[in-house]
Structures are given as structure tokens and as C-alpha cells.
Amino acid sequence: MISRAFKTVFKKEVMENLRDRRTMMSSVLMGSFLGPLMALGLIYMSVQMGKDKAEKQLELPVFNMEYAQNLEKHLISQDVKIVTLDKSPEDAIKDKDYDVVLAISENFAESIEQAKPAKVMLYFDDSAKGAASVSVRRVRALINAYSSSIGSMRLQLRGVSPGLMKVVSIEEHDQATAQSKGAQMMLFLPYFLIMGLFMGSMYLAIDTTAGEKERKSLEPLFLNPVSRVQVLAGKLAATVSFGLLTLVLTLIAFKLTMPFYPTKSLGMTLSLSMSDMGLMLLVLLPLALLAGSIQTIIAAFSKSFKEAQTYVNLVVFIPLIPSMLLMFLPVKEKLWMIATPIMSQNIIIGQLIRGEVVTWFNVAVCVFGTLFVGGLLAWFAVRLYNKESMLFAD
Amino acid sequence: MITVDRISKSFGDVKAVKDVSLVAEDGKITALLGANGAGKTTSMRMIYALITPETGLVTVDGINSTEDPVAARARMGVLPDARGLYLRLTARENMAYFGRLQGMSEADIKRRSDELVSRLGMEKFADRQTDGFSQGQRVKVAIARALLHDPQNILLDEPTNGLDVMSTRAIREFLREEKSRGKCVLFSSHVMQEVSAVCDEITVIDAGAVRAKGTEAELLALSGANNLEDAFVSLVTEEVKTGANS
Question: Which of A359, A360, A362 is nearest to A344 (CA)?
């Protein structure tokens, strides 16, 4: 039964919060658009940087190029722009002038003539970010290709089949579907969707508990002839509904930004139908109850609005943990993972994004698992103020 | 009518209130007089059923407030020490919110709001959001919202604290009107003139315990002083609790 007190408190909290334009702007609108936009920006940037390095003409600084004229011809034929270096290779890397520097040993030509292994040195910084490793990989591949082509020629001249050198040949069959490629990048997308939900309910969770205590209106409120559980339930319902509102807006924002994802470069298709979006909404809905309850509990224990804000802000990072764990955990989902709130949403949204089949069983376990934990937290949250020591800020 | 029978409360090792008893009758204004930190607010909080007494009993119109705090609260209108308003709601909306929580109908809320707005002189600011209200305006709104359901018992914790003369007079006048309507009014205060000006019965409390009880004249006779302030000082500094716990 929905009591009158519950409805009264719910309506008042919603109306009061809607009157506060600044809060609306910052928590609901920012919360819903920030996530999808940040995800888009990050994915776009990393794709763009990788693409630049992979497709652009390779600029390769070579130290002592004059010792290896044949290699120079080979590199130029492969569309490499050879750059002369005015400092030592070590310095060039240290000063971050180039990602990679090739140095030719002085007896390179001599070694080639005598059919001994000729030495080149590759200078790079292995701790550098992703894009640099693309350049290193390209140079290594160029040198290897040159090496094996000369090697094959040598064997042929001696009447030996180059095939003898290959004892085992690896034929690679990459089973990644077009969509699962580059999905690594998309691993954090669920987090950005969940983040909005947490941001949307954050303000109300604090304002209706710690804020009301600080403004000294909590005591008069509890002097009305209604149970504290009903009052708190009304407040929690208002908090959760703002989380839900933000969630819906987040999904709309995500749908709107979807065409801008660099899907071609990722080698994937990001085609989420309306029913996929609906499924996403369905698995995220129960999370609003969980988010609102956790935030209410934390805020209720805080002595002031500011203290509550500090702690509740940190809660926004909780959903990041499963996203990070999923990078190390097995790809095949286990039942416990589907039953764990936030992690289960991560997995199911990930599957939807990758275009995999999502089973109804998993959806049910996810929804009921989250509802169960959320319900428990809510049960605890609405009873917090039954303890006398929680009533006063001083 | 409110009867308080030997209530006590401690916070940790500190015994804030020790065996306080008093009776606030209908048609009378009763004061709980005490210095800062004497245990007034804690006593009031137990009387208006926000916190539970460790020992003793409070009855409001015969309802045991420990057993049925919700029913007891419905019989009371309370202006507590904490009187924060909702700043983004207007004065009338603040009142209506509490009226709904009291279970009043929308028509009753409208009728009583109009009545209290005019009796407390709130016409000028009744429809403004309460953000930026003066101290006096805030207290008037807080009183109006606490008494919207026209309760039989009116409890106020230091009602005129920090108010100017005009606001203080308006509130005193209001309390006298309520008394003449047969209401039971109980308020706590540390201001002697105030108590002297409006109260019929006075309970003097110090260090969490009752020191003396009676009308102003009785207290003066008891202490041999010729004004309430001297009487109060003599009563709370006296070691022997003359006349207390009658």
C-alpha cells in the first residue's frame, strides 16, 4: 500500500528539486550527457591516433644510413621517408623527437658480403604510449621483410629451397567478428552509461538527508504523525526517480552520439536497435534503486552536506571496478558474475555492443540480482533514522 | 493536557535529564524555565516524542507517547529548537507540506493557512519562497506550519529566541489567544521577562533536574525574592531542593 505520507514526501522532494535549476543542469543534464560524450571522445582519440601512425608515411630517422645502401633502397621502395639524425639515437628517443630510431652498424656491408648476420640497432621507449608502438612494429616488420628476402635469395643461389627453412608454418585464423574487434576500446562504455545514473541521484540523496539535517528541517519533519520509514521511503523514491530520469536521458544521448563512433576504424559495427536499447534500459533500471540507496545511506551517516558530498562523489567510481576487473577476468561469463550488480550490467551491455546473443536467463539473473541487493540496501536506508543518534547533526 | 512523570535521559556518561516531572494543563501556559544547557531541549524532545525517555512516562491527552508516538504527535503542534524551513518552497507551501503529513484535507489546509497567515501577520510574505526571510518571518512560518492542524497541545522550544520586540509581542499575543481557546501551551525558555509576561505555571529546571514549581507568585514567595530573575538565581544556586518534586 502506498501511504499518503510517502506520496506527500515524494511529491515535495521532486518539486523542490525541479525548482533548483542549477542542480538540474549539473546533476541531471551533465550526468546524462557527460558519460556518452566522454566515451565518444576517448574512443575517437585513441582510434585517430592509432590510425595516424599506421597509415601515415613512416618517417624513419636512420643513424649511419650510408653503411647500408641496399637497405636504404628497400626502405625507400616501401615508402619510408628516411631522415638524417643530428644527434645520437639515445638522445633522439630521450628528447621524444621520434618514436623509433634505426642505427646501422659500421660493418653492415661487410657482414652482408660475407653472409654473416649484419647488425642493426632499434632504439625506442617501450614504456611509451600505444601509438609509438605502432611505429616500432612497422620498422621491425620492414627490417624482417628485408632480411628474409635476402635470406631466400641466398638459399636459392646455392640451389636450396627457401621452404626448407620453414619447419612449421603458422596460418592465422582470427576468429574475432567484425564487432568484437576493437571492442576492447568499448569495454568502458557501460561504465559511462552507469556513471550518469549515479550522478543523477547523487544530489537528491544528499539534499534530502544530510542537507535537511544541516538546514535543521529534519527534526520538525519527523514531528509529524507519520513513521520515519515512510518519510525516508518517499525521499528515497524521489532520489531514485532522478537517477532513472538521468538514465533515460543518458541512453538517449548515447543513441544520438552512436553515429559518430569511428566504427569503421574499429572494424566493428555499432548497430543497436531500439529493442537492444530497451534491453539496456531494462538491465540498468534496477541499478537506480541500488545507487540511490547506497548514496542515501552514506549521506545519512555524514554530519554535513559537504562531508556527504565528498563521500558520495567517491561512490561514482564504484562502477569502475567491475569494468576494470572484466579486463582480467575470463571472457566467458560465470553465474556469479551475472548475479553481481554492476558487473552483470557491464557484461550484458558489452554483449549487446559486440552484437552477441544475450540470453533471457542472464537478463533475469541480472535484473533480480540487482533488485535483491538494491532492495536490501533500500530496506536498510529507510530505517536509518529510527536510531536517535542519527537525528541530530551535533 | 500533557503529564510528564519522572523522565530521564543520558548521553554516554552524561545524565542530561534526571527524573523530570511536570503537568501542563489545558487553558494554561506552562513554562519550562532553565539556563542554557539545563536540559530544556532534551526534556522537550522526550515530551514531544522525538526521542524515547530511558525512565518515566509522558502522556499526551492520555496517550502514552512511548507506546504510540505517532498518535501522541498527532495531538501536538511543536516548534522545536531546529526550525529550518524549505528554502525553495513558499511560506504557504511549507505549511501545506506539514498539513498533508498531518493528514489534513486540502480544504482544511487552505482554511487554516488563511487563518494563521492573518493571525500571525504573514500576508506580505506568505507567497514568497522562504529563502532570505528574516528571523522573525522564519519563526512565524515555523509556528504556522507546526500548528496548522490546530492541535490541542502546543509545545515550543525557546519560541522567541533571537526575535525583535514586535515579533515577540505578536507571538506572545498568539499564545494568549490559543490559551483562551482552551489549548494546553508548554514552552521552554531562559528569558525571565518572557516567562513572567505570559506564563501561568513555571517549572524551574537546572542541571537536568526540577528545582521548583509553581506560579510566579509562589516562586517569589518560596525564594523570598521580589522579581523572577532573583528568584531563579536563588532557586538554582540553592543546594537544598526546596519545594521541588511536589
Answer: A362
